[in-house]
GMP/IMP nucleotidase
Amino acid sequence: MPSLPWHAIDTVLLDMDGTLLDLHYDNHFWMEHLPQRYAELHGVSRAMAEMELQPLFERNAGQLQWYCLDFWSAELKLPVRELKLETAHLIALRPDADTFLAAIKQAGKRVILITNAHRDSLSLKLERIELAPYFERLISSHDYGFAKENPQFWDALQADIGFDPTRSLFIDDTLPILRSAKAYGVNHLLAVKEPDSKKGAKDTGEFEAVDDYRDLIAGL
């Protein structure tokens, strides 16, 4: 587990899904619930639903529309917002994420949420998990028109909040996003070892990973 040079960190940028919240909700929705409801509402088999959805998912992965509920509602001819409510009981905080948030806020760090989640997804989760009080800002990449994978997201973030990348910590569970942040010059980067509580540890590539948030606040 990495020890952080907290004296050299002013700003903490945090992802939401898979970083602060258990990714099981999102994985279950997109991989299980949505295909099932697509099959039911369009009168096709589950196997046929998956055959139709898979190429769409692959074509749009990592782009802004991948995270956009309006896009998927139109593309799939489904009320995606309403369908997400059907599994909202699965929305859950990752272990001790709130302890970590409270500690870094108490320490006077600037704490900002940056998520690719659509504003409607963000609102749904904030209704169930009290995250907002910990943050100075809650930023969706849809506000800027660029996903976090895109270098232009970081330019837009800089123009918006004015942060020093060399004195910033960014935690995210997606490797292409961490690599995008690294290319921009964000100095302190951490992946997440187990973003989905039902899937076990994942390969975090060249990045050190947080396993237990309580360990991160040592020396804060």
Summary: The first helix runs from residue 24 to 42.
